[in-house]
Amino acid sequence: MPLAQDRPYQIRTAASSDVLVLATFLNLFDESVVWLTSRGLSTQWGSKPLKNDPVHIKKVEKIIEQCTALLATPVKTEISSSGPAILGICLFSSSHRSHPEVIPPASEPEFYIQLLLTSRFSPSAKGLGSAFVTEVDRMARETGIGLIRLDCYAGGEKGEEGLVRVYERMGFQKAGGLLNYYESGWLGQVMERRVDVRRG
Fold first, then answer.
1. pLDDT digits (tens, 9 = 90+) for 139-196
2. Which of 6, 140, 142, 149 falls between 20 and 30 A from 40, CA-CA?
């Protein structure tokens, strides 16, 4: 991973009330839907834009209110059709928020990454997912928290477990078996990563 000063992006903390947080979520989510659908992987998030679904937008707003938000912006200005580019967003909190009835609580203080989205089309976003995890790790060490968890899609129309492998390369391990979130059979996998608080 390149050093922070060599990266084409910068990461900052944003207030949950920052209008960019919701706008970034919606833009990057819908961008990911287009990208996934073009590869025959519509079972992960469907094929319809989230911007057109007010019910889901309300759910997203509630999660955002309960989270710390990290936004990544390019060092050099990039302009998209919706304005200045935001390359990625990461939302995390002190416990799982969106599906507490499915995901068991941690036995110790934790940071739970609720959402991590990066641009699928900007070359400046390369390596950004790992950088977000590194930043959450740093913030966890500073507060003496020794556990980071997240859950990700573990199914796929082609039998792929792509996201699971991605997070394993970032130092996460599977925590428990597959979880079935919805009646539609959406499969999720909880992942966890230990934090070396002695480095804090």
1. 999 999 999 999 988 875 554 458 888 999 999 999 987 776 655 567 788 999 999 8
2. 149
Cα dihedral 127→191→104→136 (10° resolution)? -40
Tokens of 133: 């995890």
- Residue 164, CA distances (Å) to 116, 158, 192 in order: 13, 14, 11
Highest mean pLDDT among 35-39, 126-130, 153-157: 126-130
CA dihedral 77, 79, 82, 83 (to 10 degrees): 50
Model pLDDT, residue 199 = 63
pLDDT in tens, 107-116: 899 999 999 9
Residue type, 141: R
Contact 27, 79 (CB under 8 A): no
Nearest 10 degrees: Cα torsion 155, 62, 14, 139: -60
Helical (H) or strand (E) element with 125: none
What is the C-alpha to C-alpha distance for residues 160 and 153, in angstroms, rounded to an integer?
A: 10
Q: Which residues contact 118 (CB under 8 A, 6 or more apart)?
A: 28, 72, 87, 88, 125, 128, 129, 132
pLDDT given at position 52? 80
Torsion of CA 53, 73, 150, 103, to 10 degrees: -30
Distance CA 152, CA 162 (A): 10
